[in-house]
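Sorry to interrupt, but I need a hand with the structure work. Could you write out one complete protein record for me, on any chain you like? Could you add the entry underneath, on a fresh line?
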Amino acid sequence: MKLLDGKTAVVTGGSSGIGRGIARGFAEHGAAAVVVADVRKDPKGGGPPTHQLLRDETDTEAVFVECDVTNQEDLHETVEAAEAAGGIDVMVNNAGIWHAEDFFEVSEADYRHMMDINLKGAYFGSQIAGERLVENEGGGSIINVSSIAGLFGNGDWPTYAASKGGLTTFTYSLAHKLGDDGVRVNAIHPGGIQTRIGGEVEDEEAAAQQTQQFTRMVPLGRYGQPEDVAGAATFLASDLASYITGESLVVDGGWTSWR
């Protein structure tokens, strides 16, 4: 039997990057249905839409729902799509944004935008999905995709680190809140993962130098891939993790192991 046999999952930010990798991993491990929720259907970097890819490659029932995670009505519609597909078992709050910034130049609008997507979206996504998971009386799993910046902070990304730090402690709080109802809540903390969250690469030579410098600091000697995070998410969503809640799983190739 596959790890997620018969389960129905929602993955926000599921069209590209880590979210696409998680959705694909869930389908490969036998999920009955995956709801891909995102503001855009087409993945960054090209290729077929994630829901279509899952349909073509697996037996999973995959649907796309246009979802802005800062809009609670969109989140309700997303969870209802999972309910219609058999009842939600797994909620992955993955949608997020990142950019470097100068702390002294961050505007209130910049701050609000980052917090609304990275923290508010996960908060209310968890609230709406959690209510259904409790009502369904079958337990379930909520997985918040945080970041190593949510554990240690970063002077170049203060707003991002604040949003992810909030998401980390929210995860711990919700694990205590929902534990009696059999709902497990955990966080994944990716390190350097190759996605297009930072935008298109403009200087290939500089990017190559950055890669070389970065991989020297990583014991496993490479950037992570979305599939690496998908493996962690699949484990946390599965019954193999039935006694794991309120935990942070770092997926960074050992980068932060010196701390």
Remarks:
- Residues 73 and 86 are 20 Å apart (CA to CA).
